[in-house]
Amino acid sequence: MKAAYIVVAIVIIAVIGFFAYQQLGKKPETTTSPTPASPSPASPAKVIEMPIGVLLDESGPTSDVGKPYAAGAISAIEYFNKKGIFTKDGVQVKLVYTKRDYAYNPTRAVEFFKEFKDRYKVWAILGWGTADTETLAPETAKAKIPYISASYSAALVKQPYNFFPVPDYSTQAVIMLKWASQKKPGGKVVLLYDNTIAYCRSPIPALKEFADDFGLTVVAEIHLPLKATEADAERVMKEAATYNPDIIWCGNTITSCSLAAKAMGKLGVDAIMIINVWGFDERFPEMATELAWGKVAAAAPLAYPHVLKEKDPNLYNLMLEAAKAAGYSEKDINFQFIKGFTNALLLIKAIERVDSKDLEARKGEAIKEALEASCTGEPFNLGALAPTELRYCEGLHVAHTTSWVAVLGSDGKIVLEGPISVSKDLKTWEYHG
After folding, report:
1. Which H or E run contains 330?
2. Residue 148 covered by a domain
3. Same domain as 279, residue 417
4. 275 and 336 together in one domain
5. How far apart are alpha carbons 297 and 283 in whole angstroms?
6. Are residues 180 and 293 in the same domain?
7. Is 313 among the domain residues?
8. H or E stretch covering 65
9. DSSP state at residue 335
10. Do residues 75 and 220 both lie within one domain?
11. Are 108 and 58 in contact (CB under 8 A)?
12. Which of 57, 156, 212, 431 could form a disulfide with 66 if both were Cys (CB 3.0 to 4.6 A apart)?
C-alpha cells in the first residue's frame, strides 16, 4: 500500500515539473481593466440609480383627473427606464421612484415630501396639486429638489425649483378670454369655481384683470363646489343665468364642470362655457351629454391623443407602447394621461442634458441648471405634444405663452383650434405674488 502511494506521488511531481518546464522563457500575461467607455462583460457599464418621488391624487377630490395623470407618469418612468435614459456623456440613469397617493390633502403632501427628502433622498419630484405645491415651494428650493408639478399655478413660476411644461393657469385663462372675445364680442362673463380650492382660485385675478383688455366684463363670481352634485350644478347655473352671461368660466375639474355645462344646456342659458385645463377631456361629451355640445371650449396646452396620432405617429406609438407595457390599453391614453407622461418626459429630457459626474455630485441642482440652460441655449422640443418649444429662464419659469383651444362641436367631437398666443408683456404671473 505504501509503495502505491509513493508511485502516485512520483507521477504528480513529474507532471508538475513538466508543465513548469514548458512555461520557462515565456512572458507573463497582462490584463487591463476596461475603461467606462469600453466595458467588458465581466465589468458592466455603470448605472446611476436616481431616486425620485411621485406625489399623486388617486383617491381624493381631484382623482377624476388624478388617476389617468398618474397612469401617464408611471408609464413613462417605467418605459424609459427599460428603454434606457442616458446622460449627455453616455452614462445610463435608472429612475428609482417612490409613489405616494396623498388624496389631495395638503398636510399629507407635506408629510410625504419629508419622507421623500429624508428617507429616500430624492433628486427630483413629480408633484400634483396647487395648494401643496405652493406650500412646499420654499422647502423644495431649500433642499434643491426640482419639482415638476401638475399644478400650473402662476405663483410657482418665480420659485427657483418649480417647473411645468405648459403655460401657467393665468396665462391659459387669458388665452381662453382672447378666444371667447372673438365668439362673443363685448360679452359679460360669470366665473364659476370652488373658492375653497387653491387650484380653482389660481387664475381668477388674471381673468378679472385682463377681461377688459378683450372688451369683456366680469359681472359675477359664484361658488361651484368641486364635489358638486347635479342639483348643485343646476342651482349654481340658475344663479348664473340671472346675470344674462355671454361667457361662463368653469375653473374646477371635469366632474363638476361637466355637470355645470349640462345644467347650462338644460336650463337654456345662451352662453358659451370656457374651462380650465383640468376641467375637460375626452370624457366630457358623454358626461355633459348632448345638452352641452357646441357650447363648450377648454384650454389645451398639450395635444389631445387623436391629434398626436395624426401629427406625430412615432411619438404616439411610443406612448402607446409605454402604456401597454404598464398594463394599460389604447383607450386609457387620454388628455390627462398625456399630461402625466409629458411631466415625466420633461424630467428625462433634462437628465439627458447633464454630465454624469455633475449629476452625481450636485443631483437636483444640476437638473435645475439643465432646465434653465434652455433660456438662451437649446430649447426643449416636445414634438407635436406642445404648440411650441419650451424655454425656462432663471427667475422666471414660464415655458411659453401659447395654447390650443379644445372645442366641443355640435356633433360631440373635440377639435383643436389655434394655437393662440398672448404676449409675455402681459406678465399674468405677477398677479400671484
Report:
1. none
2. yes
3. yes
4. no
5. 14
6. yes
7. yes
8. helix 63-83
9. H
10. no
11. no
12. 57
Measured CA to CA, the distance from residue 373 to residue 366 in angstroms comes to: 10
pTM of the model: 0.87
Provide the CATH number for the domain around residue 314: 3.40.50.2300
Q: How far apart are CA 350 and CA 185, in angstroms?
A: 42
Which residue, 56, 20, 235, is CA-closest to 151?
56
**CA dist., res. 307 & res. 303, Å (int):** 6
Spatial separation of the C-alpha atoms in residues 78 and 95, rounded to whole Å: 8
- With a CB cutoff of 8 Å and minimum separation 6, the contacts of 298 are 176, 274, 275, 276, 277, 279, 280, 284, 405, 406
Same domain, 139 and 62: yes
The residue type of 302 is L
Same domain, 270 and 313: no
Residue 175 and residue 293 in one domain = yes
Give me the number of domains the chain comprises: 2
Please report the pLDDT score of residue 17 as a whole number. Answer: 41
Q: Which residues sit opposite 100 in a β-bridge?
A: 55
329 is a domain residue: yes
Q: What is the pLDDT of residue 28?
A: 33
**Residue 132 is inside which H or E element, if any?**
helix 130-143
- Say whether both 182 and 289 belong to one domain: yes
Task: In whole angstroms, give the CA distance from residue 79 to residue 229.
Answer: 38
For residue 180, give the C-alpha cell: 371667447
Phi then psi for residue 384, to 5 deg, are -75, 0
- Per-block mean pLDDT, blocks of 10 residues, the chain (433 long): 40 39 35 33 73 97 96 98 97 98 96 98 97 96 98 95 97 96 98 97 94 96 97 98 98 98 98 98 98 98 97 97 97 97 98 98 98 98 97 95 97 97 64 38
Amino acid at 66: G
Q: Supply the range of the domain harboring residue 339.
A: 47-166+305-400
Q: Are the C-beta atoms of 171 and 154 separated by less than 8 Å? A: yes
Going 32 to 33 to 37 to 43, the CA torsion angle's sign is: positive
Which residue type is seen at 331?
K
Q: Is residue 4 part of a domain?
A: no
Handedness of CA 61, 67, 73, 77 (dihedral sign): positive
Dist CA 357 CA 82 (whole Å): 22
Specify whether the CB–CB gap between 295 and 264 falls below 8 A.
yes
Q: Which among 311, 280, 256, 252 has a CA at the least distance from the CA of 405?
A: 280
DSSP code of residue 29 = P
| Contact partners, residue 357, CB within 8 Å, separation at least 6 | 89
